[in-house]
Amino acid sequence: MKTIPPPCPEPETGRKYWRSLDHLQDKPEVREWIEREFPDGASLAPDGESRRDWMKIMSASFLLAGMGGLATGCRRPEEELLPFGKQPEGYLHGGYKFFATAVPNRDAATAVLAKWQDGRPIKLEANPLAPGSHGTCACVQAAILDLYDPDRATRHTHKGTDVSAAKVVDALSALSKQFASNSGKGLYILAERSSSPSRNRLQKALKDKLGESVWAEYEPVDLSAGRAATAIAYGPGVRAVVKVGNAKRILSLDADLFGTEQGAAGAMAGYAKHRKPGDEMNRLYVVESLLSITGGQADHRLRVKPSEVLAVAAQVAAAVLKGGPVADKLRGLAASSPASTKWAEECAKDLVAHAGAAVVVAGHRQPLSVHLIAAALNEALEAPGKTLDLVSVPSGGDAVSIPEVVSALNAGSVDTLVILGGNPAYNAPADLKFAEATKKAKNVVRLGYYEDETAAISNWHIAASHFLESWGDARSLNGTVLPVQPLLQPLFGGLTDLEVLARLAGLEQTSPYELTRQTLKDLGADGEEGWKKFLHDGFLANSAYETASVSFKPGAVAAAISGPTSKAEGFEVVLHRDSKVDDGRGLNNGWLQEMPDPITKVTWENVVTVSPKTARDLGLPLEKGTQIPQDQKAHDGQYRQITLRVTVNGVSVEGPVWVQPGLADGVVGLALGYGRTAVGRVGKGSGFNAYPLLTSTGPLVSGAKVEMVTKRALVAVTQEHGLMEGRPVVREANLDEYKKKPDFAKNMDLDGHLSYVPRNPDGSIKNIYQSPYKANPWTKSDINQWAMVVDLGTCTGCSACVVACQAENNIPIVGKGQVSRGREMHWMRIDRYYSYDPNIPASSEVAADDPQMVVQPMLCQHCENAPCESVCPVNATVHDNEGLNVMAYNRCIGTRYCSNNCPYKVRRFNFFDYNKRDNSFADADDHHFMDLTGPLYHGPLGKNRYAEKEWEIVKLVKNPDVSVRMRGVMEKCTFCVQRIEQAKIAVKVQARDSGNVRVPGNMVKTACQEACPAGAISFGNVLDPEASVNALQNDPRNYTVLGFLDNKPRVTYLARIRNPNPAMPDYYASPRSLQDYERIRGENPFEEHGHGGAHGHGDDHGKAGGSGHAAMTGGKGGQI
Amino acid sequence: MANAAAMSAGAAPSSKKGGAHSHPAPPKIVAAAPPRELERYPLVLNNRPLNWITERIAGVCEKPMPIWWWPAFIVSFGGMMLMAGLVTYLIATGVGVWGLNQPAAWAWDITNFVFWIGIGHAGTLISAVLCLLRQKWRTAINRAAEAMTLFAVACAGIFPVVHTGRVWMALWWLPPIPNNMAIWPQFRSPLLWDVFAVSTYGTVSLLFWYTGLVPDLATLRDRATCKIKRLLYGFFSLGWTGSNRNWSNYEKAYLILAGLSTPLVLSVHSIVSFDFAVSQVPGWHTTIFPPYFVAGAIFSGFGMVLTLMLPMRALFHLEDIITVKHVELMCKVILATGSMVGYAYGMEFFIAWYGGSPYELYAFKNRAFGPYWWAYWSMITCNVISPHLFWSKKIRTNMVLVWIIAGFVNVGMWFERFVIIVTSIHRDYLPSSWGYFTPTWVDVFTFVGSFGLFMTLFLLFIRYLPAIAISEVKAVTPQADPHHPLGGAKEHHH
User: Quick check: A606 pLDDT over 50?
Assistant: First the structure.
């Protein structure tokens, strides 16, 4: 029933308002009009017929709607909305927060900020507040994926059966009581290295309680090998912390400073500091046997066998040291390898000339003598206090090493072996036969993150919690104490090593939180405020290791130096830390597995690397027309590599060969960490196990026999071609050349030959389709314009950015089979090019022996004249008003034309529903002719291979601010548009009425930029004069890759400058890639060569464009 | 006689002229016979009467099919079903079941598309361009060639649709449907031009083919022996009576459609070539592409016409209608267009050098000497060398050799598209992203299956429709020419 509203009474007093003149006159029709709520006719009830029609139409509509519903099954998904009973403080749904924590790794942790959103961490970034913060390495970026790994240990077991956490705690208490009676006799603890002060404290507490217990530590890849040398040179407890940032001359003795050594990120940051061209530019000498990214950066690189590094070190020392016991001792050693004498002498001269700003670093694989020589050199070069700090490190007590544990096991004196982390059953030195020895222990208790090889030999397996689920502490490389702060409850109720130790020691307080707090109280983070500040800042101020006041003991050093051990005939094997999976701990991490190796670009496995000469000697078939062995046997487009068998003392391992230019001859490189038998679904079947060759004598093995096996194995690589073919994609010059013409890079490629191209009156190149900003200037924002500059001078190719991008942008992994088909999804890739000596013909034997290496991060260049945009038939890739080339995933139909037309080939296509598949495909033979999808995705009717519960865990790592792309959609770098938008919102919120909504120039950091330790990537708003990209774009080194295409990319590069020493025997007047360019193109970028120059192509251009030139360009010279 | 002409409604237009006149007396003065060397080669041999032509052509689809037709049909149909299954697999699982990758994001899919659309060119060229140029020899082959065009376009249309990552979206976003988001397709993209070009071409070709069929359908209707046939042929012959008005309208419509189709012959393949020419890829970015693609399309189309027509001619004993002269003329077209294609190959290389872009030059060097050298030299052998055998009359008149060489042309033209597409994109600007494409079994069998679709349609066509234009062939016989001694409507000749 319609209720007629009561008429509004006219106010009796006050002003009278009227709506019209008629109203003023109070005409009756006006009164009626006012009383009516609806206009004439509106309130008329429909007569009988029309009401029936209405009913008919409506019922038909409902019926059809219902049928539609039946036919399509379209229904909103049911969602349960469970509001918080009590709103957590500071929680904002959809917003994110950062918490300071640390990523522990051996005895140096990285201070990070964990991005936390909706109750879970999703990304790790370097903590900018922490002292010496400088990006992160790839493994830190990937660490978060381990947290959500469905294959991690999700249960506690006793003899294979699940037990509750309470039972585990009871068992630990029982152990504690058992050993309390005999003061720990028979209790052995084998732990991973850790920097945690709390663990040190608990180690001490345990020793106090159970005095007879034995504490052992083991790391298969011992990054702190140099510590023993420092102890000899300066006394026990002293550690040397290298400060690359203070050094102008760096000599690396087989040390992969930027890759596999401890503190690589810091080294890269320090190195980058003085890598700008100028008088202060640093110089890097590298002596190495494998090719590392450090070797790729070297100004001078000496390729020697690992056993010869000692001789080179001795030669350098002979030239640096002016007498003294060490010099005397070395005299004999230096003579053993005369080939490099000149190299070493000149290098030494350069180091001496920069005494106080020079540093010598020995690699962790090298024997003690090399470390001792390095220590002596550093002392002579006045390094301590300047380019390296000598610090005293507190320790938790003595630790024995693993052979002693094994001999105790074999002697039957071990009652209970507690293994804290690590995976010794897999990676203990093979000669110890660790797994067998453990059978002699009554009880093996193991705390582990995976149910791996070691879990198989343990009675008790305790699931460890991830560092993002646990309380703890750690120290950075220089000793600053960092908090390990949980960001969520343990997903599977795991325990930490602190808790296990506390229970073993029978302490009352076993909560890791309380334990950590107690430690921090002792360290000085007192009270509630101190603790809060510690957690907030993510580090404890002034907690770095104290500088040790010690003096060098030349006598002890000289005494400890020994000559090379007698060398067995045959190949030398280097068992090295893998640049991705480390010692095997990252094997089940899909991001690390799919990250291409920075040098070989191999994914998903390890390979047997040999030099071209070695490969020739082994009889590998040669590439046509060259003497370079054909390792890259592209059979049906995939690499099916010949398998090599490496045998040492009757133990052999087999793996696919990889001919690696730049390796020392007669050396075989084997990465550790692969070929595990008890591993999750990602790591299963990945690579071969090289640990059988690792014995207690160390990672350098001689006397190996290498033979070809007729088997071939598929290897998945992301880059097939390693030469630039004279194309100046990466532009580089020597420092002297740079000084002659700083903007030489702009004068390369066809960029200098565009004078004949038709031009607009304003001098810009005439295009079929004008730049959108030119055609429609109103589409260009005058508030924000984004651009990026990548400094090729400091980029080492470490690939941290690749994984950071993957983590930030929900980029799926695709698996080995798909990578081998060329379908990896990385939005950012690191192109690695070799340049051979152009004076040596390719047919020569030595052509590829000693290459120079350059790297180039390649990502969407965000062209203003984007070639991808004009060819998309559905407008799925378009330009936004701030200079971004954006993808509308919903609009994309997947014609892939954009990818074809992209000259940089940075677009990535979802050939399958990569996000819907589980990761368990590394073991699959999904490169087989018939099996195209592998056990991956079985069409819409197939089942997801993850159990529903696992799927819920896997999904948690996704960044909710970024779409998860489905199959059939093209994707590519977005310049982290989600970060840009967040910044814009933040600025808008702040601006309020001021209207100043310009995002400050350096406010937005892309994921790759944030991760880059070298700071090689700059991004920002060019409309803000403060933006660092502005200065870099005006840097004379700035150039555009393929600039002549006039795509106007927003990503530009700074040319790399090398700083070779003219006195060196391997001095080169130009980088080899530049020599190659000059030879192939017949051009010299240091000379002007505008239109019609005297070089090879000038005449052609004159003919081709002569008439157009005269009319259109008005004589504008050879530059764009 | 007039009645007979009216009853046999499909008879040539000139034959009914006789009905309007009384029998003219034989001309008194007969022009001197032209010298032997100028004498026109008869288009229908053995002075076949008009009735024989009707009987022979209509007979093909009226008599039971010969035994060979059944196995041929079953194999073709199996191929078609194979393609249907593989396309379902493709759409259900993802484009990754093909061997595509980065950088070769297109390979067999677009190769097959261009290959089939090229084959579709001969039909329209024969029917439209030769019609306008009054090339009377076209009448023997135009019907089958046009049918072939339609079937080739059908095969061609499938590939670009299913090669998209999300077909269900492609069918929704590609047509310019007004929508409330005001988002239109991107009119600068050659792929969208393709959509319009191919659909226009398909539509006009269908209309043209169907218009030409109407008089013949009426003939079949009139000769039909069963009710269903009479009904169906009757429905599709649109009430054709063969009246003067019918013929007059028909001729006008046919001429208009010929006029409309002619530019399409040039436009479709020009636009298909823009898929490549408009891009930046070295090896694709070439202004020679439009004419070169059109020549190549005609080349491949005639190759396919010969491949199909020669067996048909032999199996249905149509040698008097599709004469050796016809085959020779087609060989000459192949020779001409093949030479153009060969010229284009050479010119591409010249421009790549002359243009001074090292990237462009590399793309062409890589074609000939890179990893896909075998594809390039297969193409050169088939497309450049083999057509030049047609300079020899002996080869032109040897049906077996012609058929084999036509087969080479087909193979060569497939390789040409493969070479253009794959060898250009597998190594473009940055050496870091160079790669290699290898087909998977799905690639291979989808392509094989498309032949199944093509052949199924073609076999059904010869089964149910006159494969040669009866009325048009009659029109080019001497009998249809009132001025010819045998011409006009005379006793005992119909």
Answer: yes
Least reliable range by pLDDT among A621-635, A793-807, B171-185: A621-635
State phi, psi for A909 to the nearest 5 degrees: -115, 140
DSSP-assigned letter for residue B118: H
Q: How far is B133 from chain A (nearest CA, A)?
A: 36
* Chain A residue with the nearest C-alpha to that of B93: A939
Asked if B211 and B254 count as a contact pair (C-beta separation under 8 A), the reply is: yes
| For residue A77, pLDDT beyond 80 | no
How many CA atoms lie less than 13 Å away from A1106 in the CB half-sphere?
A: 6
CA distance A718 to A984: 36
Please name the residues in contact with B361: beta carbons below 8 A apart, sequence gap of 6 or more: B352, B353, B355
CA distance A1105 to A64: 66
CB contact under 8 A, A894 and B280: no
Residues B445 and B111: beta-carbon distance below 8 Å: no
Structure tokens at A986: 């933040």
- pLDDT tier at A186 (50, 70, 90 boundaries)? confident
Give the integer Cα–Cα distance in Å for B201 and B205: 6
Q: Which of B280, B365, B420 has the highest number of chain A CBs within 10 A, making it the mutation to test binding with A?
A: B280
Report strand pairing: A460-463 vs A156-158: antiparallel
Tokens for B241?
Answer: 């009576």
Residue A124, SS3?
strand
* Residues in Cβ contact with A548 at an 8 Å cutoff, skipping those fewer than 6 apart: A234, A235, A237, A238, A390, A391, A392
Q: Which residues contact B136 (CB under 8 A, 6 or more apart)?
A: B43, B476
CB A745 within 8 A of CB A1052: no
Query: Which amino acid, B100?
Result: L
ipTM of this predicted complex?
0.89
- Partners of residue A892 in chain B, C-beta under 8 Å: 165-166, 169
* This prediction's pTM: 0.86
List chain B residues with pLDDT less than 70: 1-34, 484-494
CB neighbours of B70 closer than 8 A, spacing ≥ 6?
none
- Give the residues across from A484 on adjacent strands: A472
| Residue A764: per-residue pLDDT | 79
Mean of per-residue pLDDT scores for chain B? 86
- Contact between B440 and A1100 using a beta-carbon 8 Å cutoff: no
Closest listed residue to residue A560, CA positions, set A223, A329, A361: A329
Q: Which of A183, A129, A232, A246 is nearest to A541 (CA)?
A: A129
Note whether A306 and A700 are within 8 A (CB): yes
* A78 CB neighbour count, 10 Å cutoff: 5
CB A352: neighbour CB atoms within 10 A? Answer: 18
B486 closest CA partner among B18, B6, B55: B18
C-alpha pair distances (Å), A834 with each of A661, A837, A842, B226, B350: 8, 10, 13, 78, 31
Number of Cβ pairs < 8 A linking chain A and chain B: 221
User: Distance, in angstroms, between A196 CA and closest chain B CA?
Assistant: 43
CA distances, B118 to each of A1073, B122, B210, B327 (Å) = 44, 8, 21, 20
Q: What is the biggest distance separating any 2 CA atoms in chain A, rounded to whole angstroms? A: 125
**A838: which 2 tokens?**
């152009």
A102 vs A476: CA distance, rounded Å: 9
Beta bridge partners of A419: A190, A446
Residues of A in contact with B436 (CB under 8 A): 634, 637, 720, 822
Helix (H) or strand (E) holding A794: none
Confidence of residue A932 (pLDDT cuts 50, 70, 90): very low
Name the residue facing A932 among B97, B164, B185 (closest C-beta).
B97
- Residue for token digits 């095997």? A584
Per-residue confidence at A54, pLDDT binned at 50, 70, 90?
confident
